[in-house]
Amino acid sequence: MKRFLLLALLAAAPSVAPAQMYLPPVDRCASDRSFVAFRNALNAAIARRDAAFILAHVSDDVIYPNAINGSRAGFARYWGLDRPERSRLWRELRAVLRLGCARDEIGQLWVPAANLPQADGTDAMSFREIAVPIVPRLPLRAAPSDTGPILARLRWDALTTPEHDDGRGAWVHVWDAHDREGWVRRSQIRQLTDYAAVFEKRRGGWLLTSFIQGD
Questions:
Q1: Under a CB-based contact definition with an 8 Å cutoff, are residues 47 and 40 in contact?
Q2: What pLDDT sits at residue 22?
Q3: What is the 3-state secondary structure (H, E, C) of 190-206?
Q4: Are 114 and 99 in contact (CB under 8 A)?
Q5: Which residues is 157 bridged to in the sheet?
Q6: Mean pLDDT (whole number) for 88-110
Q7: What is the mean predicted confidence (pLDDT) over 56-77?
Q8: Which residues pair with 176 in a beta bridge?
């Protein structure tokens, strides 16, 4: 399942040279009016931290991290929805919903979806250290400080992060596709193996059926 989270991000784009590697989100779900209406309602529920709305739109077999047998109750426990004001779910869901959407061959909708170049031999391992900016004109700085000189402004650039990055610290050392290296704020980039959501239409309504990280 985790491998599919990565493969679902792949769009039918030709291979490109590394210097052209930009990964903007693509929205291939906008033509489905029912999903657009649901997504708007979901974003509104996230803004007001509405746990009841979320749980009403989570499948009873939902997949979430560390779940052996998915369940709505287990999802609620994992994300701490008994105390919605403290739950991390809102931040994570808000982030993925900004980053595109694509439909798979069986009608599931995958969020996020990036316009990724495909190349022979690509597998899940090759995505582990790739991240993209999620703010406009992200400054690539010469030092891990807001006062560090700006080396470049990044927009959807494919960024390589350290292989053994532990995910801690406010700053990340990165390299872009032009082989420039510098520092960016961790909160302003997103790994391709970060959380992804899957939505399915069941009995006429949209449900969240999976929300896990890739590997």
A1: no
A2: 80
A3: EECCCEEEEEEEECCEE
A4: yes
A5: 22
A6: 92
A7: 93
A8: 159
In 10 A of CB 55, how many CB atoms? 16
| pLDDT higher than threshold 90 for residue 32 | yes
Q: Is the pLDDT at 105 greater than 80, yes or no?
A: yes
In angstroms, the CA 157 to CA 118 distance is 16
CB atoms within 10 A of CB 48: 10
What predicted TM-score, i.e. pTM, was given to this entire model? 0.77
Burial of 100 (0-12, 13-18, 19+ CB in 10 A): buried
Whether the CB-CB separation of 173 and 162 falls below 8 Å is answered with: yes
Q: Which domains does the chain have, with CATH numbers?
A: 2-16+23-118+194-213 (3.10.450), 129-191 (2.30.30.40)
118: CB partners within 8 A, 6+ apart: 10, 12, 13, 14, 15
SS3 content of the chain, % helix, strand, coil (to 5): 25, 30, 45
AA letter at 76: A
Tracing tokens 């009016």 back to the chain, one arrives at 33
In the three-class reduction of DSSP (H, G, I as helix; E, B as strand; rest coil), residue 171 is classed as strand
Average pLDDT across the chain, whole number: 84
